[in-house]
């Protein structure tokens, strides 16, 4: 569960993280870096797809600068993964709600 988010930092189960991260059902990958920094490509999501979540929640940063292009959205739909894309402040709250009832992965950009 995500305890809190402020620009540049996220607290998960009491532990503070200061880099972009992926939150899987059983672990945190605190080294999420995309091929193109503010664009989420298909190649950036392979490990997530392998987890076969019902939902993927992507936090696009505080002002929502990170983008998820149509080809990435289409790819996830073909994989039968429901995608939620929101600024990180909203996305972490959505993640907390979904993870209580569905297999959910969250990928969060913590800054811009």
Explained architecture:
- InterPro entries: AAMDC (IPR034096), MTH938-like_sf (IPR036748), NDUFAF3/AAMDC (IPR007523).
- It holds the Pfam family DUF498.
- This is Mth938-like domain-containing protein.
- Strands 5-4-8-6-7 form a five-stranded mixed sheet, with helices on both faces.
- With 112 residues, it is of the alpha/beta class.
- The chain is built from three helices and eight strands.
- The protein is 24% helix and 32% strand.
- The chain has helices at 46-51, 70-78, 88-99, and strands at residues 2-6, 9-12, 15-17, 21-24, 27-29, 55-60, 82-86, 104-109.
- It has a single domain, classed as Hypothetical Protein Mth938, Chain: A, CATH 3.40.1230.
Q: What fraction of the residues are assigned to beta strands by DSSP?
A: 25-35%
CATH architecture classification: 3-Layer(aba) Sandwich
Give the helix/strand class: alpha/beta
As a whole number of angstroms, the C-alpha radius of gyration is: 12 Å
Indicate the CATH topology: Hypothetical Protein Mth938, Chain: A
Number of helices: 3
Average pLDDT, all residues: 98
């Amino acid at each position: 569960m995500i305890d809190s988010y402020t620009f540049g930092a996220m607290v998960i189960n009491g532990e503070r993280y200061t880099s972009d991260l992926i939150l899987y059902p059983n672990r945190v990958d605190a080294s999420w870096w995309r091929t193109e920094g503010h664009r989420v490509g298909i190649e950036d999501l392979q490990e997530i797809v392998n987890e076969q979540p019902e939902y993927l929640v992507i936090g696009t940063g505080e002002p929502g600068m990170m983008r998820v292009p149509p080809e990435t959205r289409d790819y996830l739909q073909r994989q039968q993964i429901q995608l939620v894309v929101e600024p990180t402040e909203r996305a972490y709250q959505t993640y907390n709600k979904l993870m209580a009832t569905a297999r959910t992965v969250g990928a969060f950009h913590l800054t811009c």
